[in-house]
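Narrative of activities, Objective 1.

The group set out to show that a structural description can be obtained from nothing but a protein's sequence at a throughput compatible with the screening campaign. Below is one input-output pair from the validation batch, recorded exactly as produced.
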Amino acid sequence: FYQYTDPKSGERTLNIANPDATGWKKLADLSHDTFIAPVPQSANVSFWSRPNALEKTFFESVSSTGENRHTILSERFGADYLWSPNGERVLVSAGAEKGGKDILLSTMNGDGGEFQSIAIPTIISKAVWSKDSKTIYYALPGSLPEDAVLPNDYFDKSIHTKDTFWKTDTLSGKKSRLSDLKKLTQNFDSSDLFLSPNEDFLFFTDRSTKRLYRIGL
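Output recorded for this entry:
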C-alpha cells in the first residue's frame, strides 16, 4: 500500500502494487493530510485525515481489491487511531468537542462498535499495544499549557511535555506505573513507542533531543 500525489493536480490517492511496482491499482482518493495503516491479520487497509481538533475525523477502510470501502468511525474531533496486533480492536484518541482542550483514549472493535472510553488523557503517538491485544503501554503527558488545543498545539507549536509511563489493561481498567518518579532523572516528551520482541523493554524517542531511550519492564 502506498500514497501517490499527482505532481500536476496535487491529488493524492491510495494505491496497491507489487514490490517491483507492477500490478498498480488505485484503491481510493485521499485528502491531502491522510494517515494510512494496514489492518492487521487482513488484506484491508485503513486511512483517516490528519488529527485536527477543529474537524471531525473519518476513519475508513478498503479492501486490497478496492472494494468494500466503508466508514468505521466518524463524528470525533481530532481523532487518531492505532490497531491492535490481532486486528480486532482499535485504540482511539479524540476530543469531546470542537477545539477542545481535553483528549482521551477509548477503545472499539474493528467495525467501530463497542466504543468505550478508558479515560486516559494522552494521544496515540504516546501509546503502543502489547502483543496480547488488550494491554497498552503509554506515556501520560504533563506540563501542558492550560489553554492548549489538543492535538493541534502539541504538534504545531513548540510545546514539550513531561511524561510519566504507565500500562493499562483495557478490558479490566487496571493501571500501573512503569517507572517511579524518583527514578526519572530528566524530563521526556516521548513519541513513537514500541516494545521489544519479548516485551521486556519499552522504547521511545524523546521529541526534544531526538534520542532513543528504553525502560525496563
